[in-house]
Each structure stands twice: as C-alpha cells, then as structure tokens.
Amino acid sequence: MERKEGRIIKLLGGFYYVDTGEGSVIECRARGVFRKENFSPCVGDIASVEMTASGKGYIMETAPRKNQLLRPPLANLDQLVFVCSAADPAPNLFVLDSMIAICEKKGIEPFVAFTKKDLADLEPYVRVYRHAGFPVAEVCGLTGEGVDWVKEALAGKISAFTGNSGAGKSTLLNAIDPRLGLETAQISEKLGRGRHTTRHVELYPLENGGWAADTPGFSAMDYQRFETILKGELPDCFREFAPFAGECRFTGCSHTAEKGCAVREALKKGEIAPSRYESYCAMYERAKNIREWERKEQ
Q1: pLDDT above 90 (res 244)
Q2: For 245, phi and psi rounded to 5 degrees?
Q3: Regarding predicted confidence, which is higher, 37 or 68?
Q4: What is the residue-averaged pLDDT of the chain?
Q5: Cα(172)–Cα(83) distance, rounded to whole angstroms?
Q6: pTM
Q7: CA distance 10 to 19
Q8: How far is 238 from 275, CA to CA, in rounded Å?
Q9: CB burial class (10 A; 0-12, 13-18, 19+) of residue 259?
Q10: Which DSSP state fits 181?
Q11: What is the structure's pLDDT at 217?
C-alpha cells in the first residue's frame, strides 16, 4: 500500500486531517494499536499515512515529538502566542506567568500579544514582559495596529494562539490573514468574559508560509490540571532569574526566603518585576506539595 507523510492539521469527530505538502489534505483514522499503547496522535504531529483505495488513509505511526502541550493538545510547536486583552477581560498575570513557565519548561518560545490597546494603557504590562526577555506586541485587531509585527513573528513557524476567552485571539488571527474567517464573539456583559467560539484545535496555513492554531480559551484550572512543574524545575522557567540565580549564597536556593538570595536582591533593585516574582512564589508554594510520582500518574 502507498504511504505518504504529512502533518496532522485537524482532529474532528475522530477523524485526523493530514496535510502532505502536495496541495492535498487526507482524511484519516488512527490504527487500533495507538489505543492499545495508550497513545493518541494530535494536531502538529508528523504522521505516516497508509493510503486506501478510496483516497483516504490510516495513520500508521508518528515521528518523535520535540514538545507537546496536553491542553490545548498540540505537538511540535515553535512558539505559543499569548493573547491578553487590556480590558474586558482584564489581564490575569498569574495565569499568564504560569502558562509562560510551562512554555519555558517545554522549549516553546512564548510571545505575548496585548490586545484592545484602545481600552486601557498597556505600557505597564508591556514593560514587565519585555524586561523579562519576551517578545511583546501591542495590537488592535480591529484597526490593524501592530498586526504586521505579529505576522512577521509567525513567518515559517508552527504557532498556536491561546488566552482567556474574549481576549481577541480569533479577531487577531483574522486580521493577520483575512482568508481564515474565524468565528468571533462579543463579551458577555453578565459574565464579563467571552463565549467560547473555538470548538477544536486546528492548524491553519498562513500566507507567510507558517501555520497557526486558534485554541479554546484557557483558565487557571486548565494548567493546574494538565501540566505540572516541580519546585526544582521552576526557577529555570523564569528566564529573568538566570543572570542572578548562580550568585545565591546557598546551593539549591528556592529564591523565596533565604538570606543571601541574589534573585531577591535583584527584585529589591528593580531588576525583576514584582508581579513576576509574586507569580513565582505562588507557583512555588503549590509545587512544594507535588511529588515526582504524582506527576507520572497524570
């Protein structure tokens, strides 16, 4: 039987859709052995497909992943674009920092896009994340301001867009590539948040040669349930700590209360943003109670 290789770009209703790069997308089922091995192919995987006489196929195997997110379920990402609105809803910096930390652990480059700049002053947020060492864009999906910068950052890369519902992910993607025509929704005045317009994960081809996924909005509970960072791993997930962590008085310093902590000293000098450090401490408190065996059971 003929075999082809391509990237899984959509999973919907038990069917996988594989782009072969030849101008065609193959509708596939996954072979039964995946279920026996307790493994599920996901969007972003490079898959080997065995063709059938009808022009459809079966996914026979997938290539090793360079990274994977459990929620949203995506593999082999180059970057994750965090879309945070200036208002309606206001940014939740703890959730943002927690998701960025997961990216750092998994080797996915974070990119922060603050939207709705016409509704509030974004400068305080932009300053914090640029100082921490992240690429940051200020955009308005409706007027197009800042969209070109995001578009350039997507060129030739596998990216996903995520953020709180109502932050403007789909609106921004539509501004980047109007061909997408993604559904958007207004903010619910009663709940103060957006309705979920994204029902599944799908990679969309962009004019610049990259791929981008719009994902369902996340919540604080999502990352706590699906991703775990142990306390010993956490300092490496805050990149602005790196210039100072090696100067701490004690080996294995937690950077939370020890004397002679260079990270805490940098915080006092204004070299680390208080909001980022507060997020670190909150995450560390939770991580203290997690054991390695608990993560393996997830």
Answers
A1: yes
A2: -60, -35
A3: 68
A4: 85
A5: 9
A6: 0.85
A7: 9
A8: 12
A9: exposed
A10: -
A11: 61
DSSP 129: H
Burial of 113 (0-12, 13-18, 19+ CB in 10 A): buried
Record the tokens describing residue 216, joined without a space.
Answer: 């369902």
Angle ∠(208,211,217) on CA atoms, nearest 5: 130
Question: Would you mind telling me the total number of residues written for the chain in this entry?
Answer: 298
The residue type found at 221 is: M
Residue type, 286: R
Q: How many helices (H) and strands (E) does the chain have?
A: 10, 15
Both structure tokens of 82: 């965090």
User: Count of CB atoms within 10 A of residue 153's CB?
Assistant: 19
Distances (CA, A) of 23 to 19, 52, 75, 286: 8, 18, 22, 47
b/e per residue 203-233 (b: at least 16 CB within 10 A): bbebeeebbbbbbbbbeeebbeeebbbebee
Rounded to 5 degrees, what are φ and ψ at 104? Answer: -60, -40
Residue listed under structure tokens 């052995």? 33
